[in-house]
Amino acid sequence: MQIGAIFPQTEIGSDPSVIRDFAQTAEGLGYSHILAYDHVLGALPEREPRLWGPYTHESAFHEPFVLFGYLAAITDRVELVTGVIILPQRQTALVAKQAAEVDILSGGRLRLGIGTGWNYVEYDSLNEDFTNRGKRQEEQVEVLRQLWDEPIVDFDGNWHRIDRAGLKPLPGRRIPIWFGGFSDPAFRRAARIGDGFVFGNGSPDARNTVETIRGYLDEEGRDPGSFGFEAMMNYGDGPENWAAEVERWRETGVDYVSMRTMNAGLESPRDHIEALERYWREVGG
Predict the structure, then answer these.
(1) At what angle do helices 239-252 and 269-283 cross, to 10 degrees?
(2) Can you give the pLDDT at residue 203?
(3) Dihedral of CA 20/22/23/24: which sign?
(4) pTM higher than 0.90 for the full model?
(5) What CA–CA distance (Å, rounded) separates 91 from 86?
(6) I need a labelling partner for 180 at 20 to 30 A (CA). Which of 89, 188, 210, 265 fits?
C-alpha cells in the first residue's frame, strides 16, 4: 500500500516557493503521490437552493492541471492525482488535451480522478448542465479514452460530436481514470467503466463500500485485481491514531491512502510541510 499526501488547497496559500517546498518535501520523504482537490469557482452559499458543500467563495483552490504542470517540472517521481476533477462542468476535449499534456510533461505520472460535484452555481457559471452530469460523465470517459488512444476520432454521441479530429501529441498510454463520489450510482459507474475509486473520507462506511464496489465489479465480470482503491486519512486525528488507521486500510486491501493536513488547526502554510515530515516519521518509514 502506498501513502500519498493531499495538497492542502485551501490552506497552502499562493507563494510558489511554499508550493514547491511542499511538493519536493513530499517526494523527498517518500510519499508516493500528491492528490489535489478541484473547484473552479466558489460561491456564496446563501441562495436557493442553498449550497450544502464544504467550500464557499472564501475557499482558495489552485487549478489542478496548471498546478500539475508546475509540479511536473519540480519533481521527478511522485504521481500526480486529481481527487477529483469535476469532469461534467468541463469541456471534454479540453480535459483530454490538458491531461495528455500533464502526463507527457511529467513522464506518465498523471492519474485522473473524476467526479460530478455538488456546486450547481459552478456548473451554471461554466455554461454546463448540472442536472444530467452523471449520464454525461459516462460519455465523457468514452470520449477521453478515444482521444488518448486514436490519432483521429469520429465520435457522435448524445452530448459530443467530434468530426474526424484528434489530439497531438498523444500521451502514449491510456491515462488511468478513477472515480470519486458518495452515492451508489457513483460506485456502480466506477465498477462498470473506471480504473479505480477515490474515497473522500476515511470513515468505516468507506471501508464497507470497498466490498460493495468489489461486488459490483464481480457483477460486471471484471477482475477486482485490475481495479484500485484510494482512501483518505486526516492528520487532525492525531499521532495516537495514525498508524492504526494505516493498518486498517492495509487490511481492507486498498492500494493507496492519502493524508490530509487541511482542517487540522495548522496555523501557516509552512506548518503543512512540517506536518508531512512528522506524519512520515510516524507511519511512512
Answers:
(1) 60
(2) 64
(3) positive
(4) yes
(5) 11
(6) 265
